[in-house]
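User: Let's play a game. I give you a shape written as tokens, and you guess the letters that built it. Ready? Here's round one.
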């Protein structure tokens, strides 16, 4: 399969880690921050500004009926295109389709394959997940701008942005955060930018304020998240021998100046994962995954992922240490995706980095595990497998599964009982297959209005689609 190249304007350190990206806040705050979107809308990456990955109002799916899921129709957005995840709002579905933002009717078009209602035009590549709030659909671009479109379209097949926001560099896979009348996004040149949702009255707007790192060669291109009064973002620090990275915490209200420094930081020992491993805030902790690359030239070239928890309010000093680690995988793995249900259970999906390996879905009881947290249950899979972040609805954990080639034709959605199976190792309730020959890069799912959106490329005809899965 041939994918379109990412913009040549990307810095080399950012470009070499290109590929799709977890995060969160307490459930109560995150759900409140999602207004004014409809209760069942999945309006941005991992549902809302808290990135909890839980649509609590979606009750169509249960452990008893999830095996009956099927692909009802597909939204066609291109040919051999890579993309981020989808967002839904007010009956529309949005996806970054390389150089366009594509908008579809979420309920379908009375056909097996639907074409976009309209396309929002961009110059570079839209690689992250869009966000929708107050009739504004926003998405960042590798051309160094944030694009804000009218979510209702413009009455034409192609729409121009209402306004663009100037970033400090290209934004790669840093899905926007929409909260409280603001749009927040990171870029690959070491900046977190905060814009007003309504723009500035001009075609190009500067941020209300920015957060910047203080270290050379530190790039901010993780996905921002809010929790306990902070914006959190994960970074990569490029070094000659072995890359590193940090967790940065910026106050939600800024610092009263145009440029703000982080309120506190944590050294992670490794950079943002190659698929932009995100964060999750569960209870009073912020949990972050980082990929620990071996020294350059080391053999074997196996990566290991570390999953660490820090106090979300900080530690009283500028540099904080982890208060909890998560165990459960003896071998290295590419990235840890995590989400939480009512701040008590952490679900993680992990994929191997090179070739054959073990991919896993793990669950941790945050309410009862200690400083070294062991999984309460897990499910393991052999092979070159790519997973999505877990997504929850109706007591079911849903994880997109596949790989970057259609060799086995087994791309689709795995379903698990969120309460486990009473054993240490659990089998999935069901695997809902997508196309017979589909490529899948781990894009996040969206669950709303009795539908599950799954991004794939059908290699039987090279069409890139959003498969919409529903119950009969």
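Assistant: Ready! My guess for every position:
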């Amino acid at each position: 399969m041939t994918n379109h190249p990412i913009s040549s304007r990307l810095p080399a350190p950012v470009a070499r880690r290109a590929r799709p990206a977890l995060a969160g806040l307490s459930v109560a705050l995150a759900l409140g921050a999602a207004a004014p979107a409809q209760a069942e809308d999945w309006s941005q990456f991992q549902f809302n500004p808290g990135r909890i990955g839980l649509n609590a109002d979606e009750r169509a799916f249960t452990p008893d009926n999830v095996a009956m899921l099927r692909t009802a129709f597909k939204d066609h957005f291109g040919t051999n295109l890579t993309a981020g995840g989808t967002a839904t709002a007010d009956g529309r579905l949005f996806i970054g389709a390389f150089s366009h933002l594509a908008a579809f009717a979420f309920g379908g078009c009375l056909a097996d394959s639907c074409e976009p209602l309209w396309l929002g035009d961009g110059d570079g590549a839209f690689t992250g997940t869009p966000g929708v709030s107050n009739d504004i659909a926003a998405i960042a671009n590798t051309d160094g701008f944030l694009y804000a479109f009218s979510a209702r379209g413009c009455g034409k097949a192609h729409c121009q942005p209402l306004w663009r926001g100037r970033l400090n560099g290209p934004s790669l896979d840093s899905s926007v955060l929409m909260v409280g009348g603001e749009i927040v996004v990171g870029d690959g040149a070491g900046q977190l930018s905060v814009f007003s949702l309504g723009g500035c009255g001009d075609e190009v707007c500067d941020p209300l304020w920015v957060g910047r790192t203080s270290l050379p060669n530190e790039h901010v291109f993780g996905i921002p998240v809010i929790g306990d009064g902070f914006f959190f973002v994960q970074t990569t620090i490029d070094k000659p021998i072995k890359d590193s990275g940090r967790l940065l915490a910026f106050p939600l209200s800024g610092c009263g100046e145009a440029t703000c420094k982080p309120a506190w930081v944590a050294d992670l020992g490794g950079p943002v994962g190659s698929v932009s491993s995100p964060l999750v805030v569960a209870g009073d902790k912020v949990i972050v995954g980082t990929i620990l690359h071996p020294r350059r030239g080391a053999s074997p070239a196996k990566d290991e992922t570390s999953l660490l928890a820090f106090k979300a309010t900080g530690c009283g000093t500028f540099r904080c240490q982890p208060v909890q680690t998560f165990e459960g995988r003896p071998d290295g793995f590419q990235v840890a995706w995590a989400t939480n249900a009512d701040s008590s259970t952490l679900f993680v999906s992990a994929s191997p980095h090179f070739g054959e390996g073990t991919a896993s879905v793990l669950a941790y009881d945050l309410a009862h595990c200690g400083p070294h947290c062991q999984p309460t249950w897990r499910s393991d899979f052999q092979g070159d497998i790519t997973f999505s972040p877990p997504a929850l609805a109706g007591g079911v954990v849903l994880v997109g599964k596949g790989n970057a080639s259609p060799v086995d034709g087994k791309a689709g959605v795995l379903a698990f009982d969120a309460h486990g199976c009473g054993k240490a190792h659990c089998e999935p309730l069901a695997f809902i297959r997508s196309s017979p020959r589909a490529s899948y890069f781990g894009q996040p799912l969206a669950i709303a209005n009795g539908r599950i959106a799954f991004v794939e490329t059908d290699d039987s005809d090279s069409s890139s689609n959003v498969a919409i899965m529903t119950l009969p």
